[in-house]
Design a protein that fits this description.
Blueprint: E1 14-20, H1 30-35, E2 39-40, E3 51-56, E4 64-70, H2 74-88, H3 90-107, H4 111-130
Helix pairs in contact: 2-3, 2-4, 3-4
Length: 131
């Protein structure tokens, strides 16, 4: 997430991406995660089949999002590539910060709309970074 890019504005939620050899490797740890108040958001499985998604606490306002993904997944590679592109290019980071601020004002609490509205910028940055 944006908290992984120094100086980039971010919502007050820590996004953690946990890489695993296989997505199913996390399943034996669901109870332990639940014991420390990480709540598996199973209703998101259809929308996010490439990961396990947990929140802490269960209901807003949330403090932590945990995305568990396979290390060989496109999701893993793309998130790290985008983070690295933002870290390496101050202008790209500044443009993204400006977009995020504009979209945060426009979408308010509509997280899905906000996320979707950022996708064009992110996809363009990923395309450029893959060249």
């Amino acid at each position: 997430g944006s908290t992984a890019v120094p100086g980039l504005p971010a919502k007050p939620i820590i996004d953690i991406m946990l890489g695993l050899p296989r997505l199913s490797d996390l399943e034996p740890y669901f109870a332990a995660l639940s014991a420390i108040d990480f709540n598996h958001q199973q209703q998101m499985a259809a929308a996010m089949p490439d990961r396990h998604y947990f929140t802490q606490p269960a209901h807003p306002p949330r403090q932590v999002h945990l995305h568990a993904v396979a290390l060989d997944s496109d999701f893993w590679r793309d998130k790290l590539l985008f983070r690295d592109a933002l870290r390496a290019d101050p202008q790209l980071s500044a443009n993204y910060a400006e977009l995020k601020q504009t979209l945060a004002e426009r979408y308010g609490e509509d997280r899905a709309g906000y996320t979707e509205a950022k996708s064009g910028f992110i996809n363009a940055a990923l395309t450029a970074a893959k060249r």
